[in-house]
Amino acid sequence: MTSSTNEITSCVTRYYESLRTSNADEVRAVFHENARVTGYLPDGLHQMTVGDFAGFVAAQDPSPESTGEEPMLEILSCEIAGDTAVVRLRERYLGMIFLDSFSMLKVDDSWLIYNKLFHVEG
Predict the structure, then answer these.
(1) DSSP state letter for 106
(2) Which top CATH class is 3-120?
């Protein structure tokens, strides 16, 4: 693995841990400030800013970790082109399996999620 691949994997892992622990500050830390989170939940299309998404994550009280939800995170692919990357992942969150596509940027030597597109499987 390259150092960029390791750094991207670390960012994705931090993202997932922020969901599991309902940690809004960590959500904001792994996303670019101008990022968007967009996708379909069973009730339709959702479009959020990072602040909206961080608030949603924080509102999950008790957190998935504290309720004993079994963790599941799979990085399916990671394509790097210079200081950009596209990552596909699958994770369990709030009793659903999400298939996410992240567009990522390297900013000031740190990889950040610039866009999250999500789909609920099943």
Answers:
(1) E
(2) alpha beta
